[in-house]
Amino acid sequence: MLSRTASSLFWMARYMERAENLARLLDVSQQLALLPGAGERVVAMPLDIIDLRDMFDETGRPLNAEEVAYFLMLHADSPSSIISSLRQARENAHVVRGTITSELWESVNATWLEAKQANRIKIRHMGQSRFLEWVKERSHLYRGILVGTSLRDDSFHFSRLGTYLERADNTTRLFRYHLEAFAEPDQTGRPSYYAWAALLRSLSAFEAYRDSYRDSLSVNHIGELLVLREDLPRSLHACFAEMDQTLGRIEGDQGREVRRLIAETYARLRFGSWESDFAADPIAVLDQILLELEAIGDSVQQAFWADA
Question: What is the pTM for the complete model shown?
Answer without folding.
Answer: 0.93
